Amino acid sequence: MKTPKRITSALILPVLLLGALAFRAAPIVTIYLVGDSTMATKAVDKRPETGWGEALASCFNPAGVRVVNRAVNGRSTKSFASEGRWKAVVDSLNPGDYVVIQFGHNDEKVTLPVGSTPEVYGENLSRFVDQVRDKDATPILLTPITRRKWSDDGVLVDTHGKYSDVVYALSKRKKVPFIDMHRNSERVLARYGIDSSKVLFLHLAPGENPNYPTGVDDDTHFSPLGAREMAGVFVDGIRQMGFGLKDQLRSCAARP
Questions:
Q1: Could you write out the DSSP letters of every residue in 159-182?
Q2: Alpha carbons 119 and 125: distance in angstroms, whole number
Q3: DSSP β-ladder status, 201-204 and 216-222
Q4: Which of 9, 20, 105, 214 sits at a 20 to 30 Å CA gap from 112?
Q5: pTM for the complete prediction?
Q6: Tens of pLDDT along the chain (256 residues)?
Q7: What is the DSSP string of 8-26?
Q8: Backbone angles phi, psi at 141, to 5 degrees
Q9: Parallel/antiparallel/unpaired status of strands 29-35 and 98-102
Q10: What Rg value do the Cα atoms of the chain yield, rounded?
Q11: 107: exposed, middle or buried (Cβ count in 10 Å: 0-12, 13-18, 19+)
Q12: How far apart are CA 119 and CA 19, in angstroms?
């Protein structure tokens, strides 16, 4: 005896709905990057300068993680907030998202309008942490990446001083996930050595690149290789933390 079509449809439809629910993709987590020029996406006329945040997307499974780079050249905790950039990030957050926070290079310029004392820098970061948590998202604090500055006796000079200490102390006090990009990037430079570490930064001879006809010797901003290395430092920190993002990691673009 044939089953009536209406009964067949009534039986099949719930099965299809259950299957659709079972195979529905998990929501994509967004990682927002906020910081300065060491992290930011670069304009075409500044290439080959590369922010380390640009190299990060390839380190995560795109089916599970979206990386949104909101870092901007020349910004500090003070100016990033006063220009409304911080509020725009907070307003975009969904529960389960992450905000990677790395400032310091420009906060240190206390004689300029962009600058903040270590105390104000810490207050700004603390407020950032609270506002991210208020949205049921996770802040990750980073110390500023080291500059390539060697002393005469071959030791890397710490140009960040108290600013790195402020980040570390705040992470302990408020129990915030923390990656010490400063010290770990020092280890990368030490591995390359005094002269060879130039390849990590924006060092070009006159005529080597049309964007820099007279050449450039920049020991703060990264070459594409340097950006990949620093993204790798961040990824290593995520692996050591062991929380959810670790499961979404994959091999980054080639690092020597």
A1: -STHHHHHHHHHHHHHT--EE-HH
A2: 10
A3: antiparallel
A4: 214
A5: 0.89
A6: 555 555 444 444 444 444 444 444 567 999 999 999 999 999 999 999 999 999 999 999 999 999 999 999 999 999 999 999 999 999 999 999 999 999 999 999 999 999 999 999 999 999 999 999 999 999 999 999 999 999 999 999 999 999 999 999 999 999 999 999 999 999 999 999 999 999 999 999 999 999 999 999 999 999 999 999 999 999 999 999 887 899 999 877 545 4
A7: HHHHHHHHHHHHHHHTPPP
A8: -90, 135
A9: parallel
A10: 22
A11: buried
A12: 55
Tell me the two tokens of residue 62: 């795109």
What CA dihedral angle connects 17, 18, 23 and 28, to 10 degrees?
A: 80
- The b/e string for 126-160 (b: 16+ C-beta within 10 A; e otherwise) is bebbebbeebebbbbbbbbbbbbebeeeeebeebb
User: For residue 139, what are the β-bridge partners?
Assistant: 99
Write out the two tokens for 202: 């924006």
Q: What residue type is assigned to position 144 of the chain?
A: P
Which amino acid, 79?
S
